[in-house]
Amino acid sequence: ALHAGFQEVEQELPGAEDLDGAARALMRLQDVYGLSVKGMANGLFQPASAGRPPLYSPSRRVSLSADDCFHVGKVAYDTGDYYHAIAWLEEAVSRFRLSYGSWNPEEERGSLEDALDHLAFSYFMAGNISRALTLSREFLHYDPSNQRVTRNVAKYEKLLVTGGDRVGGPLQRPNVTHLHNRDAYEELCQGLGAQVGLATGCRGPPTPRLAPSPRPLRPSRPQPAPEQPSRLHCSYETNGSPHLLLRPAKKETLRLQPYVVLYHDFVSDAEAETIKRLAGPWLQRSVVASGEKQQKAEYRISKSAWLKDTADPAVRALELRMAAVTGLDLRPPYAEYLQVVNYGLGGHYEPHFDHATSRESPLYRMKSGNRIATLSAVQAGGSTAFIHANFSVPVVKNAALFWWNLRRNGDGDGDTLHAGCPVLAGDKWVANKWIHEHGQEFRRPCSRDPQD
């Protein structure tokens, strides 16, 4: 009966992939937000840079165990990422030392010897032979009969005699080949820089932030200058729609190039909870386009589901409101179904375009052209960072963010390169509506200027 009961709930329990994913999420938060490993292990979201206040102060601090830190370090170790492995294994070693000799109730948990062994080899691979030798000698103090580590000690001693220690500056983070704007992305996610574009009279929290750029993001084009506040404003909009007559949309213009606007109080709490409830049973790991196929990728960590407007009156009401504020035709096949996305701790989506950049993209299978616009309603979570435009939009609960992906001539707008910053605490719920070119010819017509 116990075995049958376990099998029934087994699919709902976290597995090895979830555990390793949690470890990678902690390393992602460490990198993007510049967090201290020791602080994270103590339950604090404390930046590694001295003098900076905590990014988030939880009401109840939960510390990581020595084994937790060891597992994070081992996930990095197993992929040859010794930069992260050393930081987390050092923390694991210090915590194991404090509890050495105490009873270990779980056979498969790590130990001080395991952590010392992995940390020593990580330092060896990083070129710090002296540190590798010191840790290996400490290992032999606890397990003097281990022949492999004994041979390693002899090897390290010989390397030091022959000048094999290659210790230089601090160990560098591994290069990420697919993320060419990492510095700008991380600065925007951290919310560094002055606030810009705040119209007088706008209600709600400040929205756009501009990040400093010590180097050009794209060599071929200069950095965009901050736009004049007088051109950015708030307004009540009916857009000529009867759906907005009694309840006008609260529109805040954030940027003009690219054109980005925020609609405050776009979704009610009741609607948000209904959409989350409907999507919950259908959530699956999100995929990305890769040529003509779609596949999972580390640069997009989330779960998503698709809802038709017939799923519930709340979905239908939201779709009508989206059509009213955009003035676009959202009927199939001119727009995709509502995509509901959930990002857990560390969930993110690195810089990307919403529109297809290749004619081979699966988006063209809809036979309705490219994605002309994006409307994204957010419940809570990480900021949206526009990398080339050099600003980020912190989350405003139940608001909706709108922008045009394509220029009027049909070309993709390079300034819409954007990212979903990792979730630092709690989770993030987003409802995306992607609207296609076909069906919008008279709603957003081409201009007389072919370059527009």
From TrEMBL:
Highest taxon of the lineage: Eukaryota
Record-annotated Fe2OG dioxygenase domain positions: 334-437
Enzyme class, broadest EC rank: oxidoreductase
Reaction catalysed by this enzyme: L-prolyl-[collagen] + 2-oxoglutarate + O2 = trans-4-hydroxy-L-prolyl-[collagen] + succinate + CO2
One Gene Ontology term, aspect cellular component: endoplasmic reticulum lumen
Reported function: Catalyzes the post-translational formation of 4-hydroxyproline in -Xaa-Pro-Gly- sequences in collagens and other proteins.
Official protein name in the record: Prolyl 4-hydroxylase subunit alpha-3
The gene coding this protein: P4ha3
